[in-house]
Amino acid sequence: MTDRQELARRSYDAFVAGDREFFEEHLADEMVFSSPPDPKLDRDGFFERCWPGAGRGQRIDVVRLIETGDEVVVTYELKRPDGSGGRNTEVLTFDGDKIRRIEVYFGWDL
């Protein structure tokens, strides 16, 4: 596994654990987060809109990691404590060991 793939995997573990320190260290200052309901959030917007969902007892199982250039494509299955969940794919773009862009593509309910 490459360093970027390892950082990508660790980012999902950190989200599940509510480990904001990991994200403070590994998100670029100019990071941009986009998902269908939240296009082009900056770093502060990510922490405001997305971070409240971290560390809520969910489980994330990574099923695919594909690295190409400065991007890592991650497909994962999410399980929430209530039994609901889904499968999503995200594209993480790196600048060295910093994540500078996150693009979320929602999948389907499992």
Q: Main sheet, how many strands, which sense, barrel?
A: 6 strands, mixed
Shape: globular
Order of helices and strands: HHEEHEEEE
Q: What is the C-level CATH assignment?
A: Alpha Beta
What structural class should be given to the helix and strand makeup? alpha+beta
Number of helices: 3
Calculate the terminal CA-CA distance, rounded to whole Å. Answer: 27 Å
Mean pLDDT figure: 96
In terms of DSSP E residues, the strand content is over 45%
State Rg.
13 Å
What name does the CATH topology carry? Answer: Nuclear Transport Factor 2, Chain: A
Would you identify the regions where 5 or more consecutive residues have pLDDT less than 50? none
- For the record, the CATH architecture stands as Roll
Biggest sheet strand line-up: 2-1-6-5-4-3
How many domains, as an integer?
1
Query: What percentage of residues falls in helices of 4 or more residues?
Result: 25-40%
State the total count of DSSP E strands: 6
